[in-house]
């Protein structure tokens, strides 16, 4: 019973973190279609004046910005700052802001490799960091004829670094996940760089699906084996499309593969055949693949959002039955808001980060902290389902990070412009 209580608290905390960071990310309908990933689309506080509370200044990502040449240029060049605030530089400044994040993540990996005396890994990480920093400093990046190639080559180098044999042994999982997220964000600069990352994630997904196929074949689970085999084949086809441009057919194929991978990760038949660790690893790769496409990520996140809403309703019922009125009210509130967000996303309505969404984040955290909530759910399967949905949703919304680099950079520019930021902060 104690372990069940611990599990539900952990699951709800992850849920709260995921919903909380909903307020930062564009997965649930904001920015509007066609503008995701640009500085111009990052005007989250357009209807209200920005305050220092809107930007977390002490997190490592923001501190890296404050110490960068790119930030210094924005601080000292009023015209450049105005272009950032107005969105006039769009993808170029976005790429440079994300390059700053990528450089920081690569240096973190390099330090860990250096401490483990893995000189080759350390050297590769330093190379990625140096190239990212050089790109972030370039004042004429918007006019470079080889900008697309620079971004594509650096994205590939970062992917290659993360996949080096010794990296997982020398670097903790959190640093590797940070490097992966920064690479994915940076690669959104162009279709070419995005397809390089998509192909790499498809290759990883295919390998994982082939592993599940073998287990299902050995257990004579024909249907599960067929689904895994079909997913592997389609993923392998995508992995070969490294130079494919963006097209309706390609985007649909990515979305379809992401949906099939998500469904397979929740196969009850496979869950009986393979260890929980292998299923978790597969689910993680499925989510990483879904993040490569805005459409795929939004679709899978919507599924998880609906699951989280349903599981919050379960918690509400358990609280009602136990006459825990406060917990029931909190769970009901979280479920209702999650359902409303899911409805807006399915209706393709833009969801802005307003006071209402910040209230939802606070309500979710309060629910996670409710001491009596741990007493309400004793059914292990329910605990497991909540934890899995919340964890997946967190991965899809980048819940373990602060705001996207481009959004954060825009917020800092607006604070400087409003006279609400100085290096003394």
Written account of the structure:
The protein is an all-alpha fold. It has a domain at 51-187. Helices cover 72% and strands 0% of the residues. The chain has helices spanning 2-22, 60-66, 69-76, 78-86, 91-115, 119-137, 147-162, 167-170, 173-187, 191-218, 222-239, 248-265, 268-273, 276-290, 294-321, 325-346, 355-369, 380-396, 405-417. α10 packs antiparallel against α11 (222-239) and α15 packs antiparallel against α18 (380-396). The relative contact order is 0.17.
Share in helix: over 70%
Strand content: under 5%
Low-confidence stretches: 1-48, 349-358, 399-403
Tell me the series of helices and strands, N- to C-terminal: HHHHHHHHHHHHHHHHHHH
- Number of beta-strand segments: 0
Radius of gyration, CA atoms, in whole angstroms:
22 Å
Sheet with most strands: none
- Category from helices, strands and their pairing: mainly alpha
Mean pLDDT: 75
Number of helices: 19
* N/C terminus separation: 47 Å
Using the alpha-carbon principal axes, give the shape: globular
